[in-house]
Amino acid sequence: MNQLLATVFTGLITDENESHYFVQKNGFTFRLAKTEGTKELGEAVEGFGYVNQKQELAFTTAIPKSRQGHYAFATVIETRRDLGAFVDIGLPDKDIAVSLDELPTMRELWPKKGDRLMVALRVDSKDRIWGTLADEKIFRSLSRLGTQDLMNKDLSGTVYRLKLAGTYLLTEDYRIAFVHPSERYMEPRLGEVVKGRVIGLRPDGVLNVSLKPRAHEVINDDAEMLV
């Protein structure tokens, strides 16, 4: 069955009750909520198959951007020390777990509620759906090169990689940025959205970014404290 889970397919509506249509594909029957629109028996319908919180086979025509082989940002709903992070990919009755094995070793660098993780989906041998984090290759393929006209510009970006050498971000306009440890007061969390300014451009098109305020901004803050 796991060939149908976390994927988009077309099934046939074979039955209904007061609240759901029943969509059949390859001998498996999925529940489609009638709140998603009126359908007819015998109608072919395209959607996304998954297992909901009640462990029922479910189907939605509101196809999420994150699925097997497709990466997209998902919002963190909560974290659990024994499992990892749970993210919302847009399903009405199911949050997706990202295993703690994919999260930073240091618990304080785990994402918090409201942070964002770039995930695709995978299905294990027990038909459980998991979120899996995008790697460097995926981010490089999604990004575009930084340019000199961005120098000293303010930007915001989502932290996607934590290394001893520094922090990597994907900016709102899909450029890769790097923050050296000397250009931050503390290490950002995985998935945290941070604001900074461009201080350089590497030969490979990666922006060098500082999360520290400009000198005159610090002076203004100090002046307000004195007043």
Q: In summary, what is this structure?
A:
This protein is mainly beta and 227 residues long.
Could you explain the architecture of this structure?
The protein is mainly beta and 227 residues long. The protein has 3 domains: 8-60, OB fold (Dihydrolipoamide Acetyltransferase, E2P); 72-134, OB fold (Dihydrolipoamide Acetyltransferase, E2P), CATH 2.40.50; 143-210, OB fold (Dihydrolipoamide Acetyltransferase, E2P). Helices cover 8% and strands 43% of the residues. The protein has helices at 136-142, 215-226; strands at residues 8-16, 20-25, 28-33, 44-51, 57-60, 72-80, 84-88, 96-99, 116-123, 129-133, 154-163, 166-171, 176-179, 193-201, 207-210. A 5-stranded mixed beta barrel has the order 1-2-3-5-4. The protein has a 5-stranded mixed barrel with strand order 6-7-8-10-9. Strands 11-12-13-15-14 form a 5-stranded mixed beta barrel. The mean pLDDT is 93.
- Stated plainly, the CATH topology of the largest domain is called OB fold (Dihydrolipoamide Acetyltransferase, E2P)
Dominant shape: elongated
Radius of gyration: 22 Å
Q: What is the CATH first-level class name of the largest domain? A: Mainly Beta
DSSP summary: helix tally: 2
> What's the helical proportion of residues?
under 10%
Instruction: Please give the order of strands in the largest beta sheet.
Output: 1-2-3-5-4
User: Residue-averaged pLDDT, rounded?
Assistant: 93
The total number of structural domains is: 3
Under CATH, the homologous superfamily of the largest domain reads: Nucleic acid-binding proteins
Largest sheet features: 5 strands, mixed, barrel
Distance between the termini: 68 Å
Instruction: Kindly estimate the percentage of residues that lie in beta strands according to DSSP.
Output: 35-45%
CATH architecture of the largest domain: Beta Barrel
Uncertain spans: none
